[in-house]
Protein 1
Amino acid sequence: MKVLFATSEMAPWVKTGGLGDVSGALPAALRSIGHDVRVLVPAYPALLQAFPGATEIARPHWLGGLLPTPSLRQALTPDGTPLLLLDYGHYYDRPGNPYLGPEGRDWLDNHLRFGLLSRVAAWLGSEASTLNWMPDIIHCNDWQTGMAPAYLAYRAERPAKSLLTVHNLAFQGLFDHASLFELGLPDAAWSMHGVEYHGYLSFLKAGLQHATAISTVSPTYAREIQTDAEGMGLAGLLRHRASDLTGILNGIDTRDWDPLRDRHLPRHYGPRRIDDKAINKARLQEEVGLEVRADLPLLAVVSRLTEQKGLDLFLAIAQKTIDLPAQIVVLGSGAHALEHGWSAFAHRHPGRCAVRIGFDEGFAHRIEAGADIFVMPSRFEPCGLNQMYSLRYGTPPVVRATGGLADTVIDAADERHGNGFVFGPPTAEALLDALRRAVAAFRDPVLWRKLQKHGMARDSSWAESAGHYIALYKKLLD
Ligand code: ADP
């Protein structure tokens, strides 16, 4: 099958979260099964630098509205995945985060930047394309490419089928009415059954409405988003499309995230050499200025600091946590109040709590390896990757029973399979209870080793999920 994977981020070059990780790993996994998957991604500075020899292969024009004529450049990743880099000078050639300007606010022309990305994805999946490669399926991801299925529906001759994967329903790509014209969409699209959403134009809704099929990144999240409580205003539409909606759990990049050969670690270790994890812990404590103590459980967070991730709940009981006693290390960035709250807490408790505001891939790896317990009290979590990294790194996670966390972490109460700690209500008290249970288990070396081994034995590779995507693609083409 020929698949165009359209995405707005791709690890290791451009990543703000799970979408970047998935885009960096899934296309290669699909290719290794024998399918012809190519990735369409904006030519951000990091990609232009990584692929200076990328040659122009097409200039899609007459795209409609105010959309400009971009250039498509071709490159090949080191693992052999063909890239189509969408280049239009100042649209994507901007430093830093792909969505936000220097002040932390959305770029004002995001509808055009990601409208162009969606439009070109649809162009590639239609007879208008001048390439001699025609995909059977356009695999779109989140709102940034959510408009592609709408373009296929309204503007394409003999369109390819489309799949929209929702990595996070909270980001919906909302813009005002004027953008309908700027994006070159017909007036008829402005309806409840089109791209309109409560007086706005929504990229995500457009995709949910028009994609041939919809998937999301865990079976539990696929069920949750059909409920009014967790459907973020789109539950009705998702229920309406329930027969076209599936949940496929993400895998992780098991080459990047392997404690036996992780290039970021001071000492490698694995299921048969878990003791060497202690060296990583001591080095991590040194690195961040915590007391170097093997006996204190070291709890860790690597996350966007937002309400979604429940890190306000953790902050509310941070004092009680370090009194257990325990240590805390946090790496993240996001909401100002959380950045400030956590930094202030660490300032008051040197030796017990260390906080780094920022995004640091290598440090994230050293935390996974050095910490004893990983904390993810998310209010909602479509899939979540860090709990899977934690399982693989022998760092049992404490998670709330939601979305992909519920699908990957098994509570220690299950003696035969338990690999972490799961709690229900999104409250600080329930989190503290779970942390207490985790710390008590940490003090029982036999039990702890068993939990670590169960986690490390879990297969989180992409192989199985890639197989599910192939089955889904086949269903679309039937
Ligand atoms: P989301 O996509 O909602 O942010 P995921 O758990 O799916 O959450 O993916 C987050 C990814 O981003 C993981 O690979 C995680 O390690 C990484 N990450 C998040 N924050 C940071 C940070 N501050 N520094 C380094 N990596 C981070």
Protein 2
Amino acid sequence: MSDALLKVSDLRLSFSIEGTRTPALRGVSFEVGRGKVLGIVGESGSGKSVSSLAVMRLLHGTTAKVESGSALYEGRDLFKLSEREMRSIRGGELGMIFQEPMSSLNPVFRVGDQIVEAIRAHRKLVRKEALEEAIRLLERVGIPDPRERARAFPHELSGGMRQRVMIAIALAAGPRLLIADEPTTALDMTIQAQILDLLRELKGELGMSIILITHDLGVVADIADEVAVMYAGKIVEHAPIRELLERPRHPYTRGLLASLPSFRDNLTKPRLPTIPGVVPDLRSLPTGCAFAPRCAYAQDVCRDVDPEESRSGGARFRCHFPQESELQ
Ligand code: SF4
């Protein structure tokens, strides 16, 4: 039996667009081990955020429909829980932080009060005790002068501070799994590194598992244990981080890695390589491999037959012509 904390199997989800059901997730499977970090990487529209929102059942009020599949958390299928059961797990055992904290924080309440509310939603503390706990959490996420800052409104804090507040809210109930959806995208490089350091520290200290969703493979390189690369609603490659960075099998993963800037490239290359073309419209996916129109290795079979999952070393991938050479 798998020792995964979360095991998502063959998740298929569609949205209704102009009266037609359009597949957004086309058989997504992944596991998150206890105390491990899974990075989910892909361009906008690949399905990475939809996967996490589906697991958290936060797509209510949209036209999304889970067609099939399961999301086992500690052996319980999240898709089969009542809304009440799900509410107690969401924000409790499962925490989430988003890209833009300003839109997640309520602008008219002091940040301390917002953390207090999150604490009291899941723990039986009187307000005074919850406020002390909120101040402790603010201190833990690296906010200087936390007693004073607890009285601040969100607009009085910098972007990095607001993201730290969001992390404090996500930690309020002591989650076992934290889903971080592009938590550093809106931040500059120095603050981005500080937030990733904080997540790494918290993982070690609290034994949490983390799903880190990002469009940037560079962000997961230092923190993830495993990485799933998504394209057009499927995971096209899934591997331990070192293996993925050194020997990416899928041409899309290779393209993502080649387009990462490095200091040496900045000095020697006038332009960074890019992946030609754009992510396909899910309403009119090509037959065969969805990456074929952009792939330098595509052959006739790629345009006719969607590749099944294959394995090599510790990696799983979907490609008729996987690359086995190490990345230079
Ligand atoms: Fe490229 Fe073919 Fe592999 Fe798709 S299956 S990624 S088109 S080589």
Protein 3
Amino acid sequence: MSDTLTTAPTNLLPAAQQALKRYYGYDNFRPMQGDIIQNILGGRDTVVLMPTGGGKSVCFQIPAVVSEGTCVVVSPLIALMKDQVEALKANGIAAAYINSSVGQNESNDIARAAVSGHLKLLYVSPEKLLSDGFLQFLNRVNISIFAIDEAHCISSWGHDFRPEYTQLGQLRNHFPNTPIIALTATADRLTKRDIITQLNMREPRVFLSSFDRPNINLIVRPGQDRVGSVIDYIGRHPQDPGIIYCLSRKTCETISQKLLAKGIKAAHYHAGMTPLQRGKVQEAFLQDDIQVIVATIAFGMGIDKSNVRWVMHYNLPKNIEGYYQEIGRAGRDGAPSTAILFYSFADVMQMREMVTKDVPARQAQLNTAKLERMQQFAEAASCRRKILLNYFSETLAEDCGNCDICRNPPTTFDGTLIAQKALSAVFRSREKVAINLLIDILRGMRNQAVLQGGFDQIKTYGAGRDLPYLDWYSYIHQMLNDGLFYIAYEEGYALKITERGHQVLKGELPLPLRKFQPSEKAEKPTRASKKAANAASTAAVGTPEAQLFDKLRKLRKAIADEQGVPPYVVFSDATLQEMAAERPVSRVGMLGVSGVGMKKFETYGEAFIKLILEHGGGGQYVPSDSDSMFNEPRPRLAKPEPADKPVSDSEDATIQFHQMGLTPEDISERRGLALSTVKTHLYNAYAKGRELRIHDFVSDSELAEILTARAQLGNDATLRDLFDHLREKYDYFQLRMAALYHKRLRGQ
Ligand code: ADP
Ligand code: ZN
């Protein structure tokens, strides 16, 4: 098996990896990126489903850079195109865009550059692409790849349906041999199917990345005194840019007024404003001249600002897709960020009316079902991130530790029996019933739907008589949230049992449920939830690191203003934070910072080094936390370092020896333990978030080799496959440590 794999076509991944370092300043691909790039460079159609901030751009930009010719990127949003092209140029990559905002002369220049092969990436709007003569023009360009960004716009199931997108199927007919990569942050099954069929993709490989955004702290707050809470929060984060989403234009304006009255740099943004007014507000926000935008959901689609530190929902969003997309606008740079949702039951009622008014019955039903999931999220008493991920068909093995519930867990009881009753009823009714009918069956109701379906004949009919309707409603939603079943929307909302559900049904897994509480009671603010919100702040104010970060941020702003680009195009917050922590004052040091590529070093390096020197940087930096001193170089986490989970005493002893510089062999001898035990200790501690000198076990180039091998083998490969594939060069301990390292890099 390994033979066939090693004779795979020329491996371009090393070239891609070099380009990543050179142009973007990043040391490693996030694992999914490596796979994707390999696939597209192999000339195969590729579908990428990855959350906002996951790093989709790199997936087509790097192949574009290392391939001959020009990658044509179809993107629906003019503002976004401009930002992406600016960011590419800042990284030293030749790129341009053509859309309705570009004049004829400039378009002609760009077209010439494309034909003569001087562009690595050409962004076009779908309207432009399909306009008269454009495809003929493209015939004269040597096209390396078609990248379809925001590909969910093709699906009428989705929230951003764009009719022009459905014409993109023509690309395959005109350019049968050019590979297509479609990218979206929507993971919906139906959307995925539409993308593949409508683009006429040929046996595409689909990459579904984790939708987790671990750097976003998820918080739900009770709906009382929202304005007070907002002002209080901003007061505690005076430098952090954020977005407040509201339902109505009126609310946007009122809140923005109230914030302005408190001296906060805020502005409102909604579809009732002229394009000019909106453009101004957006520009000022991008430039960090406005701290807070109070917007209807219209805002954000077209912006790429990576240093949005928090997003608030003043009102309940109408579904989880929308909520997730909106909170995804926070923390795209991977640095700690916060999402706060204000919630009261009245919001649900208001929203229910809105989503069912003036729409066909079928749509109203769908909207209501989706709203109910949103409500369940807001009322949840188990890890919120689990619920979110579950909604996108993902399971998280452990609670996240970065949501309000994880910080303040509610009480639960053993609900296995209750769950089994519900699961059994679903099973016996052949997975054809929706929630309401299921509850009727469980409670032994004799209504038409029950009798017509013959459900009064099944064994579990009436098995749940003892519980009132609302209790069942809550428990079944908890089971949904826990991934025991899912809703097949296209089959009349029937509940389908998952693998996990079957395990509970068979008694192989217990199921804790939380006691049902009427909403008012559940939404009383707790001390702990207040504490959690406080803990969500990004940097400890007043520390030398925070002071330097502040200075760096000011320098970035000055440079950005001078050059007329948004500050995050100069450097991301994450990059500045790393500079503040490591204080590089040499070329090598600066290039070692994640996000500093060659071009950016040449353009900005000196100014930043000078500032760090003035601040008293340059090697004298003494790390304040005990972890940093034995970890060199520090793994570049894409998320806040997880609060360490406790390690056992014995593991701790091993770690202490490791910190003193002992090898696993030495430790094994010193402690009189088997070498394998010592390695297990190290592995466990690393898995629990402890920092180890990973390079004692695997060097950077070895890590890259292992990563490449994993990319080649694909997701389903076992450790054993990897071991064989690498011809036993590494032992299992090294492979496992490397896997953890890569996982952490990805910020999982
Ligand atoms: P998306 O398009 O999926 O929303 P982006 O492509 O904008 O995400 O990437 C989000 C952020 O992550 C950007 O700041 C990007 O530069 C950064 N990023 C992407 N790939 C990597 C990587 N391999 N290492 C470090 N940072 C990365
Ligand atoms: Zn959690």
Protein 4
Amino acid sequence: MMDMKKVCTMMLAAALALTGAAQAEELFEFSAGSAVTGSSAQGAENTAAADWNYPISREILADPDGVLVLANKDHLLEKSYPDPSKLVTATVRKASSSKMQARDVAYAALEKMFTEAEAQGIRLYLKSAYRSYRTQEVMHYNRVQSMGYDDGMVQAAGASDHQTGMGFDIVSKSWTDRKMNRDFAKTEEGQWMAAHCAEYGFIIRYLDGKEDVTGIYYEPWHLRYVGVEVATYMMANNLTLEEFTEEYQRALAAYESGESWDAPLEPEPVPTFGDETDAFTF
Ligand code: ZN
């Protein structure tokens, strides 16, 4: 069963990669005929597109499992998202007795992280997992009613990372019934997660100092599954999912028009607030 699924996923990834390559070649041939780009004579002879030089492979970016989905106020998920057949019930240690569900692929990674954390003396508690569109709608409505206006503290329906089924609030025992704040980052559990989450395919979804990009305050307890390769790259480069999405889409677009992706090798200096507002407009 497991193997079959793996085989199917691999075949799908391969098929997607082939489709991508065929399309890219088609595009290149079209642009090569119409005297564009400053490609050298050697480049024109060679009908292959520019080399793929982005640090993440195109097979992973083709995202056969849909783990790179972006949910925020500018990218709203459908009411029907995700496919309910892909949700499983969480049985890891929880912060409350309420039933929690998660996306299959993300949950498998979560379970592994909880087990291995415990082996290292770190006891994690799952506080919140999948949240449906409808639940988010009610939460948002209640917040607006109680405040008298939308203060932005509760995400609108479709905008929550929790709706992906791959976003998790994870805490330590002493924080199970506390109101969350950034001090959680100082706990042993918070520090362990920041240091090790990428090994299991997780990122800290709402990074410190990136409030102007994500629109959300620093949440050292909210992890999001994106797969090991992507998580490792994002955490090493201090990238939000908004920034990563913009970056890899730029890399794919460059490749499809036969160009190389030339990213700055070093991250840009820390921007002052307001400099990254364009990140919302990709
Ligand atoms: Zn959360």
